[in-house]
Amino acid sequence: SSFSMKLRINLSKLGLPSNILDFVIKPFEDYEKFSQIPEAKGDIAAIQSDAFFLPLYELYLTYGGIFRLNFGPKSFLIVSDPAIVKHILKDNSKAYSKGILAEILDFVMGKGLIPADGEIWRVRRRAIVPSLHMKFVTAMIDLFSQATDRLCKKLDTAALTGEAVEMESLFSRLTLDIIGKAVFNYDFDSLTNDTGIIEAVYVVLREAETRSTAPIPVWEIPIWKDVSPRLKKVNAALKLINKTLDDLIAICKRLVDEEELQFHEEYMNEQDPSILHFLLASGDDVSSKQLRDDLMTLLIAGHETSAAVLTWTFYLLSQDPGVMAKLQNEVDTVLGDRIPTIDDLKNLKYASRVINESLRLYPQPPVLIRRSIKEDMLGPYPIKKDEDIFISVWNLHRSPTLWEDVDKFNPERWPLDGPGPNETNQNFRYLPFGGGPRKCIGDMFASYENVIALTTLVRRFDFELAPDAPPVKMTTGATIHTTNGLMMRVRHRTTYPIKPTIPVVETASPASIIEAAI
Ligand code: HEM
């Protein structure tokens, strides 16, 4: 029997009253209960490698859907079991906060929607979600096409010269251009320009990534803050971004003031359909700091993730010409040479599945972060308050027990004419956009954006890895990056522009006409 049981037996022999016995023994019992969660052993240093979710996958195969990892005094629970994940994200989400994530992102997102918790989160989510209504997302479809068209112009040159192009950074610029227009009606035009503000956005993004992987939070040391050249640069970048945001907010306020406003559920200003315009027109009453935090959060959330999705989708396609051929065939048939509309999106079923499947194999971000703010039960295990938890979406999406042919890039694993996969209909084995009350608010926006960018590009070009490209390996910041870029060779498709396919009409054969005449 356990140590606490033995202790209880021996102490009771001494005649101690039961309430004192309980008091003495409870800590030992608690300790034993908590230590029931399997503890991962082995070379923990491996976790500090580039793509830290890969060693976590190995440990998952050994220790299962929940285990504990200790780093000196710090301890993390790694969760990869769909039922436990559903419990944390959805059924008992009130018992969890964003924990470490909020600490890491504070310098850039403040109390923006991703890191915020509690009342601030509740109020801001209620204010922001309505801005992404159907009419807005539909209006964005043309923006997605136009922005991707600018990228096509860049690729035209590369296709003519035969020079290899680094697609990851181009996708990053494409999605920055899109999200800038969508969130605050600002045209970064980063595919053609390299202005100070674009540089500033990248400085801040890189800093956020460094912080999420740095072992020691040097940025919290008071003197370091003032002398470190890196932090000086970060602070200057933040200042520029804040100033730009303040200017954009002021411009937008003026527009709203001049407008004859009739605010309603699907309100949208045709000249400026941005989320910022919606928020100001809705009379959203917040401090300018909170509004800036929210805009920054939307900018980063919508930028990095979509860029990573496109990068890994093109990598996967380069490894599987069969899927690419099928995709191009669908695009030719559905779109011909038209600019895609919302109705076309419903018919680009294979393209949607390509994105769904890319998000399964390369979830962005690969790990979700939580902290328990009260005691809870995870499966059979009791946990304490203040446990730091990593939900490995990577492990869920690549679990050999949850999926058939788990490593195969197979867009048709979900039937084309069925509903698209999501966390609910896949019972939390698939959660590209999270789940529960903190699920992504940009899921539809992002899905349309990805499908339009993908189809616009493969309609006009063939893509392959550049013959002398470095091997494509993974590293992590907030999302999965390549270690050395995605170098591709681009060619104009020989079949472009595509003529729409003429439908085959059943006609009576000459023989049957003659027969009928007789
Ligand atoms: C939250 C993924 C695009 C805004 C999330 C979460 C995931 C996610 C997994 C949940 C995080 C968690 O539970 O800890 C993605 C992916 C995208 C994408 C894969 C692109 C393919 C976007 C876009 C926007 C956006 C375009 C904005 C327009 C947000 C916000 C949250 C969020 C504000 C926090 C919601 C909350 O906590 O209430 N996203 N996202 N995302 N996403 Fe996205």
From TrEMBL:
Keywords: Heme, Iron, Metal-binding, Monooxygenase, Oxidoreductase. One of its GO terms (cellular component) is chloroplast. One of its GO terms (biological process) is xanthophyll biosynthetic process. The keyword Heme applies. One of its GO terms (molecular function) is oxidoreductase activity, acting on paired donors, with incorporation or reduction of molecular oxygen. Belongs to the cytochrome P450 family. This is Protein LUTEIN DEFICIENT 5, chloroplastic. It comes from Spinacia oleracea (Spinach).
